[in-house]
Amino acid sequence: MTTKLAHLVRRTSAVLVTVGLVALAGPAGADTPENWTGEPPYEIDGVHAALIFVGIPVLLFAVITLLVLLPSLIRGERFTVGGQATADQWFGGPSKGTAELPAADDKDSKAGGASARW
Question: Residue 3: which residues within 8 A CB-CB, separation 6 or more?
Answer without folding.
Answer: none
